[in-house]
Design brief:
- This protein has 243 residues and is an alpha/beta fold.
- The chain has a single domain, classed as HUPs (Rossmann fold).
- The chain contains 7 helices and 10 strands.
- The protein has a 6-stranded mixed sheet with strand order 5-4-3-6-8-7.
- Strand 1 and strand 2 form a beta hairpin.
- The two termini are 34 Å apart.
- It binds iron/sulfur cluster.
- The site of iron/sulfur cluster (SF4) has 13 residues, from helix 6.
- The site of iron/sulfur cluster has 13 residues, from helix 6.
Length: 243
Amino acid sequence: MLHLAPDTPAGGTRVLHPRSIEVLNAHFAIRPAEELLDYALSGALGRIALVSSFGAESAVLLHLAARLDAATPVLFLDTEMLFPETLAYQRALATRLGLTNIHHIRPGPVAADLHRTDPDACCAARKSAPLEQALVGFDGWITGRKRFQSGTRATLPLVEPDAGRIKLNPLAHWQRDRIADYFDTHALPRHPLIARGYASIGCAPCTTTVNPGEDPRAGRWRGQAKTECGIHFVHGRAERTKT
Ligand code: SF4
């Protein structure tokens, strides 16, 4: 039984005491990801949603959650700039996993060419703002981020505060091989663009294939200074990171 410090209601959501976050990180550091997911989805931390891009590795977290509770709220951020293959994969994977509570999150009106003129503003309008709106009513969210993905994620905790909510990263400590093994063990379908050379899959105008030896994320915003999308906070600070 976990003993957490009293939390603080704020604006309709629960804000965990920093000590509670320490307790959660210490407790689950030596336990399987499934236990943290199970705990989060049990209601012990309030109302928790899973946010997924249905990208290259998303099937693992979605499969783990579906096995615990097929009605887990899944927020799928459809920027309206995704590859058609991603939309097809989203439908097929949701059916395969039996997920019954998927929320399709879409932006309001956004200029079609904003990604060319101001990609940060485009990400804010197509990703950050719709996600923030979709999270109203939730006390926290689950991501599929992992430490191996980038230098800024190297110290990613399992549990962290995030702008008044709690954010859970149950796969933070998983390595690339383990992800691949999980796909194979459970015969999970791969995103169709992986076979065509895409390693990290975001919006179509901002994603290219990668060459052998390149960082998997080299295809995101290729040729631009931008490397981040802006929907994550790291250690409580807004930190623009790739998703
Ligand atoms: Fe816009 Fe590109 Fe960001 Fe997608 S990744 S929201 S198209 S700038």
